[in-house]
Amino acid sequence: MKKIILVIIVISLHCIFSCSDTTKTDEKTAGEITQLGWTSFSNSKYEDAKYYFQKAIGMDNSLADAYNGLGWTMAKLDSINVSIDNFLICLEKANANIISEANAGISFDYNVQNEHQKCIDYAENIDSEWIFSHNTNIDYNDITLLMAISYYALGHFAESLAKVQILDADFDADITIPQGRAELAQKIEELKK
User: Fold this and answer.
1) pLDDT tens by residue, the chain, 193 residues
2) Do residues 39 and 25 lie in contact, with contact meaning Cβ atoms separated by under 8 Å?
3) Which of 79, 68, 75, 8 is closest to 35 using CA atoms?
4) What is the residue-wise DSSP string for 91-159?
5) Which of 31, 110, 153, 188 is the most buried (most CB within 10 A)?
6) Contacts for 48-51 with beta carbons within 8 Å, 24 or more apart?
């Protein structure tokens, strides 16, 4: 008798948990699946996020935010070229709300690849009030630092100094001499922390 009751309980629990699963993606729209991707991204579950964004794109390939999410996710998974490809598609399809996020993501990617002019080109298209909607610790100050790094790497020390001074108005260095350029490089390193 106890065995039968135990079997009934197990079957009941299985049915409760599997039959009422509201996260089945087959019953959701591409927009809802994109939101599942962003939730996974925010929880650092990047493989899950990748799955959801790809599924959303498969359902609706005009959904710019899914490409945006896949771009950020692939960067976290160290697939920078795939990330860039998705940001470029996003930028073709995006509305104003997503453009800054995609430009920010692709700027980070090009910085990682030491493609400094491309980093700057995309970073310059970002609204100065931008804050990443899926991680508020990333904002326009990070983009300003990226531009300072890239300008420095390209030997455009005056532009690099100008970006650093946006982040620290009290900093100054004589960039016409090697010591001043070294001080600028040191300040950039400090700002990275």
Assistant:
1) 454 443 334 344 333 333 333 355 678 999 999 999 999 999 999 999 999 999 999 999 999 999 999 999 999 999 999 999 999 999 999 887 799 999 999 999 999 999 999 999 999 999 999 999 999 999 999 999 999 999 999 999 999 999 999 999 999 999 999 999 999 999 999 999 8
2) no
3) 68
4) HHH--HHHHHHHHHHHHHHHHHTT-HHHHHHHHTTS-TT-B-TT-TT-BHHHHHHHHHHHHHHTT-HHH
5) 110
6) 49/73, 50/74, 50/77
What the block records as the tokens of 142 is 């990070």
What distance in Å separates the CA atoms of residue 72 and residue 66, rounded to the nearest whole number?
10
Which residues partner with 131 through β-bridges? 139
Q: What angle do CA 22, 23, 25 make, to 5 degrees?
A: 120
Q: Which residue has the tokens 């400094």?
A: 116
What residue type is assigned to position 66 of the chain? A
**Cα distance from N-terminal residue to C-terminal residue, the chain:** 65
- Return d(Cα 53, Cα 38) in angstroms, integer: 8
**C-alpha distances in Å from residue 147, one per residue of 22, 94, 127, 161:** 44, 23, 14, 10
